[in-house]
Amino acid sequence: MEYKTRTLRIKVQLNDIVEIVPNKDWSEPDTLELARENVIAMKKAVDGKGRGLLSHTSNTYLSKEVLKCYSQAEIGEVATAMLTTSFGSKIVGNLFLKLLGKSKMGEGKRGKAPIRIFDVKNKNEAIEWLLECIKKNKAL
Predict the structure, then answer these.
(1) What is the pLDDT of residue 108?
(2) pTM
(3) Which domains, ranges and CATH numbers included, belong to the chain?
(4) What's the CA gap between 68 and 26, in Å, rounded?
(5) Burial letters for 91-128: b for 16+ Cβ neighbours within 10 Å, e otherwise?
(6) Which of 24, 61, 74, 133 fits a disulfide with 79 by CB distance 3.0 to 4.6 angstroms?
(7) Higher-pLDDT residue of 61, 66
(8) Can you list the alpha helix ranges (DSSP code H) found in 59-122?
């Protein structure tokens, strides 16, 4: 199953991974309206099931209010793996997640579900990590 918003393509894979890819034709910053639209589509894709998010990061600017919308959204995923194309953004992102306590295992809600950042070259490692998180969630 696949969902599309103005800024994202969201594909539910058979292994319970929801892959989120930015629309290559979209180069404008996200607005709060767009973020809400994306959150609704991600919730539909997760559908209350024990699914993990594999999110390709975009190179567009995100305002503080848009970041807050995404960080507070309760999508229902068991874990999120974010793929980045820059080593520097991976380091800064991981530091940010650790400071917020968002990188620890939790209870399956956004804010409690673990989030890890991977280099896009390590996509297979990110998928393996997500599959392990999904497996642990099913065992609960």
Answers:
(1) 35
(2) 0.85
(3) 2-139 (3.30.750)
(4) 21
(5) eebbeebeeeebbeeeebebeebbbbbbeeeeeeebbe
(6) 133
(7) 66
(8) 64-72, 87-100
